[in-house]
Specification:
alpha/beta; Restriction Endonuclease; 2 domains; 6-stranded mixed beta sheet; 3-stranded mixed beta sheet; globular; binds zinc ion
Length: about 300
């Protein structure tokens, strides 16, 4: 059963929004694609683990810190006597393995070795348990989830599960007999309490509020072509209709996501929303839906 849900990381949400509103520099664009692709793969793996019938606790996406050594776990599965650590990779295309190094076949470039990533993660997790005085056996696997992934010269005797091996692998896990107790639950709770959320903002300070494109974005298709009619906003591309209040509050959420330190004022939201021609309307929506502090001229909404 799922003990900790997976959600999109703050960094991925931030980049998704910035990608629409700003011209991402090459490295940020690459980072955005990698995060999105990785997340997609992890969600694909979740669909498999969620169906497992053996007694388990699934902790999806943990970000931990052991004395300054930060490490991320894609999926951790607690069973009666074993802890499974899964490093999920959504690589697509042809790759080859030579002298312990993974390369992309198309570019011949070396890629980050997932086996080393798994090893590091496993070692840090073991140390973490040691520091907690918990004795567990950890078994780690690299899961290549994408059916269009192929590795030439794949190494033998490495903890790798390829896409075509996944069905049998899941079956094998399912056959395990496992009964969880309060001790396992305590361990799961402890791990969740140690989960950190890392602030991504320092990396993206170049995209200041005066530089990003303002305006409503359609919540369905992402288009900027929105027209205001009565108490609704309509997307001119996909036709999606959204209530005015809901749309304004969605924009407030986006401003908060992009610029958490920015004070939410009527003026700021008014400028951001562009198509709404009355500040009064904006003030009404904010007043009705948010708490405010300050004087009439300088209301700040929270
Ligand atoms: Zn649309």
């Amino acid at each position: 059963m799922i003990f900790k849900e997976r959600t999109e990381s703050l960094e991925l949400k931030l980049l998704r929004s910035l990608d629409v509103r700003a011209d991402l520099i090459e490295t940020d664009m690459q980072r955005f694609h990698n995060l999105a692709k990785g997340y997609e793969g992890e969600v694909m793996f979740d669909l498999l683990t969620e169906t497992l019938k053996c007694d388990n606790f699934l902790l999806n996406d943990l970000f931990l810190d052991l004395n300054g050594n930060k490490f991320q776990i894609d999926t951790l599965m607690i069973t009666q006597d074993l802890l499974y650590l899964f490093e999920v990779k959504n690589f697509e295309g042809d790759f080859y393995y030579e002298n312990g190094i993974f390369h992309s076949l198309a570019s011949k470039k070396e890629i980050k070795n997932p086996l080393l990533q798994l090893e590091r993660c496993q070692s840090l997790l073991r140390q973490l348990f040691q520091s907690l005085g918990v004795r567990v056996t950890i078994e780690g696997f690299v899961i290549f989830i994408n059916p269009r992934f192929h590795l030439y010269q794949s190494p033998l005797n490495k903890p790798i599960i390829y896409p075509n091996q996944l069905p049998d692998f899941m079956k094998k896990l399912n056959r395990k007999s496992s009964t969880l107790t309060g001790r396992h639950k305590g361990l799961a709770e402890q791990l969740v309490s140690m989960h950190r959320i890392e602030s991504p903002y320092e990396k993206y300070t170049r995209y200041t509020i005066d530089k990003v494109k303002k305006g409503f974005i359609c919540g369905v298709c992402g288009s900027f072509h929105i027209s205001f009619c009565g108490r609704h906003l309509q997307c001119e591309v996909c036709g999606h209709l959204e209530g005015l209040d809901v749309a304004v509050l969605r924009m407030v959420e986006e401003i908060r996501l992009l610029y958490p330190n920015e004070k939410i004022t009527t003026n700021l939201v008014y400028e951001w929303c562009e198509v709404i021609d009355s500040k009064k309307t904006i003030r009404r929506v904010l007043k009705q839906n948010m708490n405010c502090t300050g004087k009439t001229k300088g209301l700040i909404f929270e």
